[in-house]
């Protein structure tokens, strides 16, 4: 459990404006809105409207329980709190007029199951002495980390000799967030509540590809590219961030190389996979690895993994697993 939360009523006001459809007259009505407050582990106060809980069909006690286990929020809050304190360093660019985390409002929430939060949309007010006019944009979609997997296959014939070119496994599935029904990308998945990137990668490969492997067979490209001792001045995990303007998602990218027989290779092309109960409907597609940069150009994970793997090959050779 990450937090011992308490909730209490907080009354504020909201302005509602109505414009006439056939004129320029407007009226303003002031309505009282009751916020609930939640104290976080970092002693910050989160405000949430009762309507948010009503829409999610949970009561206050259930929200406290789910919020306590929602590691994405707690990791984000701890990170921003610690990085804000670094402004005390005279060399920090904001040392003379440091920013503070003033307020956090929960705009909406999404449950994956009755007992697990999936997403939180919050609005964080981060400002300095100049006030809201110079505040940083703070609308954040909290979903936590994810793993992406670049799987490279080398076919071999009945005599065990390699033939043909290296192939990459891609998934094709609907991605409603971008308005797509056949979006092609490398296999990927959200981390669990334990924030286990490598374990998530192995689990997703079994679910999405039907490939069973040990975690030790996955090489972490992101940790190789960002050694812990060479992290930035701020506190961040060894991950890459595809959408820092509005989302906390940090990705760790892995690569796995596998030699595979012609007969086994046939099992992957066009295979339907995924867990229907988790809203997954996935088709597999094999593409020439050398064309990944072009065929997978819309997928930030694919491009990043391709670039890192190409750079990795200049300095070391990874072992191949033979199936």
Structural shape: globular
Order of H and E elements: EEEHHHEEEEEEEHEHEHEEHHE
Low confidence ranges: 1-30
Instruction: Calculate the mean pLDDT score and round it.
Output: 85
The oligomeric state is single chain
Work out the number of β strands.
15
Helix content: 10-25%
Task: State the separation between the terminal residues, measured CA to CA.
Answer: 41 Å
Question: Total number of helical segments?
Answer: 8
Gyration radius (Cα, Å) is 24 Å
Largest beta-sheet details: 9 strands, mixed
Strand content: 35-45%
Structural class: alpha+beta
Word description of this protein:
The protein is of the alpha+beta class and 323 residues long. It contains eight helices and 15 strands. The strands form two sheets. Strands 7, 8, 9, 10, 11, 12, 13, 14 and 15 form a nine-stranded mixed beta sheet that branches. It has a six-stranded mixed beta sheet with strand order 1-2-3-4-5-6. Strand 2 and strand 3 form a beta hairpin. The two termini are 41 Å apart. The N terminus is likely disordered.
Give the structure's gist in a few sentences.
By secondary structure, the protein is α+β, with helices and mostly antiparallel strands. Helices cover 22% and strands 35% of the residues. It has helices at 50-56, 60-69, 71-85, 197-208, 221-225, 262-266, 292-295, 300-312, and strands at 7-19, 26-39, 45-48, 100-113, 116-127, 139-142, 146-156, 167-175, 180-185, 188-190, 219-220, 251-261, 272-273, 282-288, 321-322.
